[in-house]
Amino acid sequence: MSITASHELTSETTIGRPGRLILLNGTSSSGKSSIAEELLATLDGAWFHLAIDQFHRIRARREWTDETFLPVFQRTVLGFHRAVAGMASAGNDVVVDHILGERWRLADCLTVFAGLPVLFVGVRCSLPELERRERERGNRTVGRAAVQFPLVHQHDRYDVEVDSEHHTPAECATQIRTRLNQGLPTAFDELRSAHGLLAVD
Hints:
Number of helices: 9
Helix content: 40-55%
Radius of gyration: 18 Å
Largest sheet: 5 strands, parallel
CATH topology: Rossmann fold
Shape: globular
CATH architecture: 3-Layer(aba) Sandwich
Order of helices and strands: HEHEHHEHEHHEHH
CATH superfamily: P-loop containing nucleotide triphosphate hydrolases
Structural class: alpha/beta
Strand order of the largest sheet: 2-3-1-4-5
Distance between the termini: 55 Å
CATH class: Alpha Beta
Oligomer: single chain
Mean pLDDT: 89
């Protein structure tokens, strides 16, 4: 096969079905990244892990005021959603690591991920344990989890929930894989029907 031919799209590489999304939602330090690593190691196929923290890390460093940073922050989150949707629309399966700390984030996901199969996973952990992890790791802003804690699960509807405090990342991943194999997810469709949750704050 020539080099030119090897780079042409084939029937196996052309876009067919949309990819699946496993959307992990939880506070900072709740264990989402560790669970995502376990999923990528154990799920069949070429899954990707995309995390909102990755997108914040690759943004240019500037001295922002709160006023000037807010629109930059919001555009980063909105762009993250569209990057995830783009990967899935091209047929890629993606584990999404996110913090749905305000209603507008969930509302945008419900819109942008329309037509994509989304397994919505709640990653739960108690606040004392989150605070202990923040102090122990040393690379997290202490107090961030406390701010996020009352917000991230306020919609209170998931396809599956895991307890990262009392179960290992591998055990949480097993629960998620089991639900993935049980049939189509329904939480996002149910949330789209909950009209009050669709308004952007």
